[in-house]
Amino acid sequence: MSSVSIRKIRKSFAGLTVLDSVDMEIAPGEFIVILGPSGCGKSTLLNVIAGLDDCDSGQIVIDAVDVSGLEPSQRGLAMVFQSYALFPAMTVRRNLSFGMEVAGTPKATIVQKVDWVAKLLQIEALLDRKPSQLSGGQRQRVAIGRALVRSSSICLFDEPLSNLDAKLRAETRVELKQLHETLKSTMIYVTHDQIEAMTMADRVAVMHKGRVEQFAHPQSIYEKPASLFVAGFVGSPAMNLLEGSLDGTGCFLVGLRSISSSAYPFENPSAGEAVLGIRCEDIGIVEPGSPDSIPAQLAFTELLGADALGWFDCLGKRMSVRLGVDAARSMAKEVGLRFDMAKASFFSAATERRL
Amino acid sequence: MTRSPPFERPVFGPRAARFGLYAFLFVSAAFFLLPLLLVISNSLKPMEEIRQGNLLAFPVKPTFDAWVTAWKSACTGLDCGGVRPGLWNSVKITVPAVVISTLAGALNGYALAQWKSRHANLIMLLVMVGLFIPYQAMLYPTVKILSSFGLFRTYCGIILVHVVYGLPYTTLLFRNFYVGVPEEISRAARMEGASFFRTFRSVILPLSTNILVVVAILQFTGIWNDYLLGLIFAGNDNLPMTVQLTNIVNNARGSASPNVNMAAAVITAIPTLIVYFLSGRYFVRGIAAGAVKG
């Protein structure tokens, strides 16, 4: 278990800013997911933490030691690569033991460690095979094994599940989470898959254009997105967004219609142009014309098995509402929508930050 | 009413194609093999048959006398010891030169392909320039440089010349192979604490068997068959087989004996033939791997 501090990391390639002053404090034993769309700088950040890429300025501090100038191997980290990057000419056993051989670990210890990790990941039967004789899922396990075998206090994962099929991905996700519970090492995990982020992380860092937009518990990222980007990126379907303005007296005006914002817990109360964000499950269906409701027309419904989505035209926008399957089947054409303002989000139109 | 027989493709179609294919291969093989066949058949003739002047005839009384002469008693200039001393000279020049130029080329190619320094492409361009300039153009400067280091016409000198002249070629071949090897493998080795050389030795070289064999064969053939560099840089004590072969052929003393010349030529070519036969499998595989991986 080690703590990691990322302090004001900046990096640019040929005039393009890849990392723009990234700060992050990671506590010992935390499972951190760095989430973002491709090109947001998340993999670069991971490589900078690992020491594989240099940064222009800033510090990486592990357990109160500044490691910025150190080689990857001196930082006490292990890493799982997206393409697994197993050594093709070596057997699985040698893939696992190579790092310890380089470090000059005694033979007996190596054997013991390899056996331990092989048992942990159930790859004992594969030890004498070459990587080319393994399936994708097996290679994945070996790659994870190689990262775990030296009991590094910090493990880095660079989109490790993105090359697996959906079923295997779900299984491995659960296993990784269990491994973290068992080993208690600090894990930093990069992904663009929000389900992985939501299910595995103690805290999620959402990155966008080289900046950390929000660094918080996954549930609060979902419920209280800190910026318009997070609101749109996290959650499926995306959060419903309505542009309007706050009049400063507890009303949000969209065109000619006014929605009471008095139930909303403002953190930074302000007036002016704003965006209202509301999740599909925080909208209720009422009789058209009920008080505090907004008239809407049903466009179509999607049955998702366990529940359903209704898509409504409302205030000139297409909005999604989560429905029960039965309700969706018998949905009337003309309805009223009632927003649960206590669970809604307001963003400043100018700064795109949460109000 | 009789039904008309269903339309049938002519049965000889694929068979004719196959026949054509083999005919073409046979003719191509014959085209390249006929000169060799002539050389061998004439090397087996005694002088009387040679004097009849019928080059294409097969030997009536085959004999290995010419081979024995070529091997140990034909005159190469002043001494008459055949090509035998040249064989050992060629071996002791070729083997170290092939090993060093191949391994150094692998190291260069790996560094240029995988450890992206800012000037890697510029360096590669300069290496390519080295490939395009005919080495005859560089002979005189090379002679001057080697003599100023006291290496001109020495054993170390000839090996150095072969290694340096071979490096652009081997570097290019390895670089193109290593560009196709995922960069993450090197990065993973770095995470495991392996140094540049340790990564190269333990991770990269073991996956390069095919390309190593291809490059080693190309270098072996090139250096074994080299005449000019051997003549100029090897010095009298280290003259390779090829130089002695020309000395036999051009020997002004006594009458010309074409059967001995041809026998000497075949003996000189045997080692490269052996190398090709022994490594043909890897050679084809390496060429194919290179083609796929770029």
Largest interface: A-B, 22 and 16 residues
Number of domains of chain B: 1
Helix/strand class of chain B: mainly alpha
The CATH class name of chain B reads: Mainly Alpha
**Distinct helical segment count of chain A:** 9
- State the domain count of chain A: 2
Rg of chain B computed from alpha carbons, rounded to a whole number of angstroms: 25 Å
Shape of chain A: elongated
Average pLDDT for all residues of chain B: 86
Query: Strand-residue fraction of chain A?
Result: 25-35%
Q: Sum up the overall morphology of chain B in one term.
A: globular
Number of strands of chain B: 0
Predict the CATH topology of chain B: MetI-like fold
Please, could you describe this protein's structure?
The complex is a heterodimer of chains A (355) and B (294). Chain A is 25% helix and 34% strand. Chain A has helices at 42-50, 92-103, 107-120, 136-148, 166-183, 194-200, 218-223, 228-233, 325-329, and strands at 4-13, 16-26, 31-35, 57-62, 65-66, 77-80, 154-158, 186-191, 203-208, 211-216, 240-246, 251-254, 257-260, 272-278, 283-286, 294-303, 308-314, 317-323, 334-339, 345-348. In chain A, the strands form four sheets. Chain A has a six-stranded mixed β-sheet with strand order 6-7-8-3-9-10, sandwiched between helices. In chain A, strands 13-12-11-14-20 form a five-stranded antiparallel β-sheet. In chain A, strands 15-19-16-17-18 form a five-stranded antiparallel β-sheet. Chain A has 355 residues and is α+β, with helices and mostly antiparallel strands. The model of chain A has no long low-confidence stretch (mean pLDDT 90). Chain A is elongated. Chain B is mainly alpha-helical and 294 residues long. In chain B, α1 (12-43) runs antiparallel to α13 and α12 runs antiparallel to α13. The radius of gyration of chain B is 25 Å and the shape is globular. The chains are: A alpha+beta (355), B mainly alpha (294).
